[in-house]
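Human: Here is a favour to ask of a fellow structure person. Comparing notes only helps if you start from a blank page. I am asking you to supply a protein in sequence and structure-token form. Write it directly below this note and I will take it from there.

Assistant:
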Amino acid sequence: MTRGTARHGGRTVRGVPSRLLALALTTALALVVGGVEASSADAASVCAGRPAKTVKFATGELRVYRTRGYACATAVASKPGKRRRMSVQIQARGGRPVVDSGGFTHRAGPVTVHALNRCVRASGTIAGKTGTTDWILC
């Protein structure tokens, strides 16, 4: 055997055993495929925590999530595509609202507030249509 080659499984591959090369290619393919699936899953839940409330309205939905001490909200368009005016806000009782607004193609937010032992309310607007919650998570 010459220097710089490896003999493995009946095949000689210059510099790298063939099984190691196959493993590397399989891992790379899994990362590419898994990366595409992960990005679509991340789009569904950009906030940490578990879903607490979903409010559907004509052009999308307002999603509110909660963890032990925080609440998070996003406004997600039902038909992503062209850039349009969107906003989302969340407010803990006794605090100021946290807002994200602008021209977006898919989602406004996430916005997060500290809500340990406090009620929150949220609203989301997409292209002039609005969804809101009452005081929740009390």
